[in-house]
Amino acid sequence: MKNTLKKFCTAAAAFSLFLGSSVVLAQTANQVFRAAGTPQSPKVTVSWNRYYDHAGINEICRKLAEAHPDLVKLETVGESFGGRRMIALVITDYKTGDPNKKPGMYIDGNIHSNEIQGAEFALYTAWYLAESFQDNKFIKELLQQKTFYIVPTINPDARDHFMHSANTAHSPRSGMIPLDDDGDGLVDEDQPDDLNNDGHITFMRRKSANGRYIIDPHNPFRLIPAKPDQAGEYEILGYEGIDNDGDGKINEDPPGYYDPNRDWAWNWQPDYVQRGAYKYPFSIPENRNVKDFVLRHPNIAGAQSYHNYGGMVLRGPGAEEDTNTYTREDNQVYDQLGNYAETIIPGYDYMVVYKDLYSAFGGELDWFHGARGVFTFSNELMSPYLQFHRRQAPGQDRDLEFYEFDKMLLFSDAFVEWAPFDHPAYGPIEIGGFKKNYSRAHPGFLLEEDAHRNMAFTVYHAYQTPNLVIQDATTRKLGNGLTEVTVTVANTRLIPTHSSHDIKYKIERPDYITLKDKDVVAGIVLENSDLNLGKEQKYTPHRLEVPNIPGMGFVKVRWIVKSANPNLEVEVDSRKGGVVTRRF
Amino acid sequence: MRKSTKAILLGAMLSGLSFNGWAQHRDYPSYSQLTARLMKIGSRYPNLCSVNTIGKTATGKEVWLLTLGRDNAENKPALVIAAGVEATQLATVELSLQMTEQLLQAAMVQDSVRQLLQTKTIYIFPNLNPDATEQYSEKLRWERSGNAQPMDDDRDGRIFEDPFEDLNRDGLITMMRVKDPTGPYRPSKLDPRVMVKADAAKGEKGGYLLLTEGIDNDKDGKWNEDPEGGVVFNKNFSFDFPYFQVGAGEHPMSERETKAFADFLFDAKNVYAVFVLGPTNNLSEPLKFDRSNVSKRIITGLLEKDAAVNSQVSKLYNATTQLKDAPKTQPTGGDVLQWAYFHYGRYSYSTPGWWIPKQPLPKDSTYTSQTYPEEDHEDLNFLRWAKANNVVGTFVNWTPIQHPDFPGQTVEVGGLAPYVKQTPPKHLLEPVTRQHLKFFMAYAELMPRLEIVNIKTEKVTGGLTRITAEVLNNGSLPTHSEIGDRTRWVQKVKVNLRLEKDQTLVSGPKMHLHNAIAGGDKVTVSWLVKGKGYVGVVASSPTAGTQTKEVVLR
């Protein structure tokens, strides 16, 4: 079994899987020729080149659970601020073992409401696992050993707002709890206005002899700054909107605004230190639901959250003040996983949040790592690399690539052409610019491939959560009717049952190794079995407690039993490593 | 309630144990007694106060809130008085209740008090951790500080696996002393009942282990390290949260009680200052300004102006209460005091209200403090004070027991009875209540008041009028804290015009937003308006009040 899995992983890393956008249509089986790595005949067909609102996501979840009752079950995570039901897909082989006693992998997306594709990536993962179980040996074994907890969107209210109300590619980002952003005592009273009624908030520009912008000679959609000695012809007036509350400012109090990813209870800081923080850790109900869900599932050993944009595989710490929270041992695990991600996801770089991106307190990944000892990544989805399969040019040309990609591959579908509008404050202006579904969100044809690659990374992460094996039990007669029993328990994967940060603060309880014999006289956790060095445990000697079973490592324990033929049934019970038993 | 007390007494008599006078010491309120007392207050003063709940505890007890000055409560500048944040400090609960009762009584007869309740709101939380304080009234009394949320205090994966045991069956958890050559404790030379640490550096010998009353159930070499409960209210807030420490909780605001308290306060924009009746004391002695604490991005000390206000208020506290010898206690991680300042943005103060006065050794004593360095020992001082004030039932005399963890060793159970240091005879709290009310009355006098003064209109050519006004803080304290200007949760001072239909604002912002205005300070505002008739100038702040003045444009 081990060999097969290993082979598969190498294969996945070495091959560049050729997938493209495969929409499975209702055709007869003999008309379809199977593409490698894609489910042959999925019970639930989903188009992976489009996006789904919250109801759409829940509909797919429901269908998956219905089609695969032994693989997919739905669990309610909680209710959002706006009363939407947050759903987790709990995916495992329910016929093999208790889902709560297998190492768990948690995946969510869309915490920032405009960063939509995380939900589809998470959902693709659920779909892929369920639909591949039958035909793919690796996936089958994986679901026998692990449990996936997948919450496609953890900001459903604002996801729907992003899709169904006028927005930019960058809004709302927040959740939908109304808030006074400009300190005038009114909430959300000056939101952007969809002046041209196209469902997008684009830009306003005005022809002006004093403007400092000109039309780009290479692309008529685009404005570029005039040269220092050149006369301009346009001025940019900001995002589409009017001064709704007459305070001389436009769009200064949009829906929200707070940042749900500054709300998590690890080194949380208030809004004047960390912009975007709400009232206190987990004061945002959607996050509090997720937190409660995670605490209800202490077997979660790995976690992944999906954001956009930029092509990054991020680990913490989010803030420099937290560098001690990430130890050398734990970072070795992160590095192994992160480097694997770089290999299989082109255009994505493995990075550290505070060093390589920006400093942020109260982020989700810091809570998972710091408070729960869970190895966690956040991926910033959609890399500009994917546009022309090259690293982006710096500066001005970088911006041009977005226009060129839209023109050459999307046939200008992502742009609202500039059109005149009579603005109450600015007079005759033009409105236009990129649509909200462009630049941050994947264009349809790139969605499935990138979802697959990111999914493969989380599958690798899940695969590397602890796999505990009770390797051997040796006995030795001690005389006086006593028998010594020595057992080795190995962890055959990369991730330890307790991160070193976890061990330091005793976050999760120790792992229990139990000999199911009622006549255990003494129990010893061995440090060196050859030299008989170890520590005796006086309390419950039959159930020994070990602080950790290291990744790719082992622990040895010893019992002295008042019996000539002890019952050699051994149970290992680890919160993050699962429960395994073996009888010798 | 009386019934259950009786039952306990009866039970004690039947089991042949003497109570050494504990019965007198049951007079601090249980949850049901507290509830009954609040209901009585509510029904006696229906026009002055209301009794509400902000939420329920894990066992379904209400977390009560008294609102004094009930009319228009949410639109008047407010003070918060929070008691029972440290559940062993029952005196704070009683103090908050006595203050409430005296204040309401006074409001019936004194104009100044009635006036206070007309212009200000006082939110009183008499007991913020009722699940923990209830241990005082339970059959087995021990000083519990955690609520009813089950917690694995020693983080070993077992919950409540090492509780206290009432080994001498007196209904109280006290201490055990074990004769042991490795023990670091010895009986005090001043009062041999009290165990003090031997000073090895001075050649002193110990001879006793000192442990809490119970058995080491899980054989980990620690006694009673994981009893029933819980999260400590005063450790569960978000500033400097003590992660992974006993009583802190899974994360800041993880508890029903703390979350309900914070949610209520965040909604209460009118709260000007929070007064915690709790362990820390920054009223007898103010917190000092330290530039190094405020020059990092995470601010850990009072801002300069706020430190000056703390000092001003502290002077007032000492002058009005005349309280002496306050124990010095620093703020601690996760406490309410620091949260209310750093994360809620309000002025935040704390005092235990009552503490054990210094009781010097009798004058005729031949002892010198050099011979007996333990003179200042807290327990010895307490026992001298208790004796001088005829407080009974403070000490359980050491009596030998058989202890399974110490076979063949002499083990005795005894020591100070639980809660005795935090439950003075109630009559001793009466003067403390009066002193604190005096302080609060004086404090309210200093609170900010917005007034619009020197309002002027000037004709400008073309039918325009320039309106100029000064907004004065006619109180002694600032309109809000300096830290309040940094956080979004404190409303800045708003000044705006109320225009009629045919009047238009030609120049000047629709709304002036101002940072904190110091006591006696003012800001000047002006607008250019077109039109005629009455125009209202409105200055408002939830923490400093609202004033509107009208001018006529001709």
Automatic annotation (TrEMBL), chain A:
The keyword Transcription does not apply. Transmembrane segments: none annotated. SMART domains: Zn_pept. PROSITE patterns: PEPTIDASE_M14. Keywords: Hydrolase, Metalloprotease, Protease, Signal, Zinc. Residues 1-26 form the signal peptide. InterPro entries: Peptidase_M14 (IPR000834). It comes from the Bacteria. The active site is at 380 (proton donor/acceptor). Residues 50-406 form the Peptidase M14 domain. The keyword Coiled coil does not apply. Its cofactor is Zn(2+). Pfam families: Peptidase_M14. Belongs to the peptidase M14 family. PANTHER family: PROTEASE FAMILY M14 CARBOXYPEPTIDASE A,B, SLL0236 PROTEIN. This is M14 family metallopeptidase. The lineage of its organism: Bacteria, Pseudomonadati, Bacteroidota, Cytophagia, Cytophagales.
From TrEMBL, chain B:
Its cofactor is Zn(2+). Keywords: Hydrolase, Metalloprotease, Protease, Signal, Zinc. Residues 1-23 form the signal peptide. InterPro entries: Peptidase_M14. Residues 27-383 form the Peptidase M14 domain. Belongs to the peptidase M14 family. PANTHER family: PROTEASE FAMILY M14 CARBOXYPEPTIDASE A,B, SLL0236 PROTEIN. This is M14 family metallopeptidase.
